[in-house]
Design goal:
The protein is built from eleven helices and no strands. It has about 260 residues and is an all-alpha fold. It has one domain.
Length: about 260
Amino acid sequence: MSYIQAIIIAIIEGLTEFLPVSSTGHMILADSLMDIQDKEFAKTFEIVIQLGAIMAVLLIYIKRFFVGLDIYMKLFVAFLPTGIIGILAYKTIKHYLFNPFTVSVSLIIGGVVLILLDKWSEQKKSEYKEIEDITYKGAIKIGLIQCVSMIPGVSRAAATIFGGVFSGFDRKQAAEFSFLLAIPTMFAASGYDLLKEKDNIHSDDITVLLIGAVVAFLVAIIAVKGFIAFLNKYGFKHFGYYRIVLGVLFLVYALYTGLEMTA
C-alpha cells in the first residue's frame, strides 16, 4: 500500500466512521477501485486506523467521562454482545464478508432502514434527560443491535443510532451514545486485529499505519462536529438516499467492468 493510498483510505475512514454510511464498506469499495494488491494488510490497515478516529471522539467528549461511573458501566454493557460475538465470529466475518458485493447490498438495505428511521424518529421525544440515564436494559438492546454492524456495509453508527432511538433516545442522544460506544468497540476490534496480525506487520507497515491513524484523527474531528449539526437540521433520510445510490452505482459499475465482487 502506497502512502497516497493510505491517506485516501484514512480520509474516507475519518469522514465516514461516525456517520451512518459504513466506513468499512467505503474503504472496501475504495480498495477495489484502487486495486490494492495486499488485501490482507489492507483489511488490517482499515481496522487499525480506526484508533485515530476513536481518539477524535475521546477528545471531543472527554468531559462525559468525568460525570460519574454510570456512563462507563452502560457502555460496557452495550459493548458486551459485540465483544463476545466478534471474538467468536472474527475469522469468518473477515474472510467471507469483507467484499464489495456484501458491502453494496448492505448499503442499499441499510439506506432503506435509515429512511424509515427518519420518519419514525422525526417527532420523537427522549425518555431520558442525559444519555447516561439510559437503563441497562436499553444499553443491552443497543449492544445487541450493534452486532449486526459486523457485516461490512451495515455501519456500526447506523446500527447503534437505530438501537438508541429504539431504546428511548432522541436523534441527538442516539448519535452521541453511538460516538461514545465506538470507543470500547473500536479499541477492542483494532487491538484484537493487531494481536492476530502482529507477525504479518513489518517495519515499513508501521509508518503507513501511523500516517493513516493521524489523518483519520484529524478528519474525524471535523466529521463528528459536522454530523450533529447536519442531523439536527436534516435528519437521517439523506444518508439513506446516499447509501442506496452508492450501493446501486457500485453494483452497476462492477457488472459493467467485470470487477471481482467477492474477492
